[in-house]
Every structure is written in C-alpha cells, then in structure tokens.
Design a protein that fits this description.
By secondary structure, the protein is mostly helical. Helices cover 76% and strands 0% of the residues.
C-alpha cells in the first residue's frame, strides 16, 4: 500500500514540476529582448516548454511503469535533474552569450568557468535523459508483458 501512495506522490510531483518548468519556459520568453544571445533565449524558451511537457507526460504515465521502488525513485530524480538542467544550461548560455558547445544557437566562447558549467550541465543532462528514457521503456515493456486481468 505504501508503494502505491509513493507512486501517486511521484506522479503528482512530476505534474507539478512539469507545469513549473513550462511556466519558466514562458517567462524566459519575456526576457528575450534583453538577453545577450536572443537565439539561445529562444532555445531556453523551447527547452522549458518541451521539458515541462515531458515531465507532465511522465507524470501521467507514471502508474503504468513496472519498476522496483528503487528504480522508480532513480527514474524520478534523474528525470527532474535532466529536465531542469537542460533549461538552466540554455538560460545560462542565453544570459552570458557563452555556450560554444551549442554552435547552432550561436553560442560564443565565454569565460572558462561559464563554459565548464554549461558543458557539464549539457553532458550530464544528456546522459540523464538517455537513462530516463531507457528506464521508462523498461517499465512500459514490463507492463506490456504482464498478464491482462480484467477488473470490474
């Protein structure tokens, strides 16, 4: 029973953080005219919106995942980290104009500290989101493999 309650809490928190991140994506768009890199500001806007939607969808399908409590907890925290780190990395790049790892959005080379911060966030969030997607797929596959029981 405690596991069911914990799953409901994870689901609710994912919905909350998803809408919060979506809101952050909307708010950053208001600041685009004053950002050092407006194109990166647009990227931050889109990252907030898309990662927010991702967390909301994850919250909606959370109860379908068949994973142990330990793996559900890991999936939850890695999803939160990856989604928010993605937004934060691009916001830092938009505000500072740095972000040489993102040349398509016009990132220029910034100070060493800022570049290390942005690069660390980008690399870690990429790994985090790959791990989350793999864990979600495992949880959904296990749910599919379970025998179907019709409940009235």
């Amino acid at each position: 029973m405690e596991s069911i309650i914990q799953n409901k809490r994870y689901s609710d928190w994912l919905l909350f953080f998803g809408i919060l991140l979506f809101l952050f994506g909307l708010i950053i768009a208001l600041f685009m005219p004053i950002l050092a890199n407006k194109r990166m500001g647009l990227s931050a806007h889109l990252e907030g919106i898309m990662n927010g939607i991702f967390l909301v969808i994850l919250g909606l399908i959370w109860n379908k995942l068949v994973l142990t409590d330990k793996w559900l907890k890991i999936t939850f925290w890695v999803a939160i980290y990856g989604s928010f780190a993605n937004f934060v990395a691009v916001v830092i790049a938009a505000v500072t104009g740095a972000g040489k790892m993102m040349p398509l959005a016009g990132g220029k080379e910034g100070t060493q500290v800022v570049e290390i911060l942005i690069s660390s966030l980008l690399i870690s969030l990429s790994l985090a989101m790959i791990i989350v997607c793999i864990l979600i797929l495992i949880g959904l596959f296990r749910a599919i493999k379970q025998p179907f029981v019709f409940k009235n």
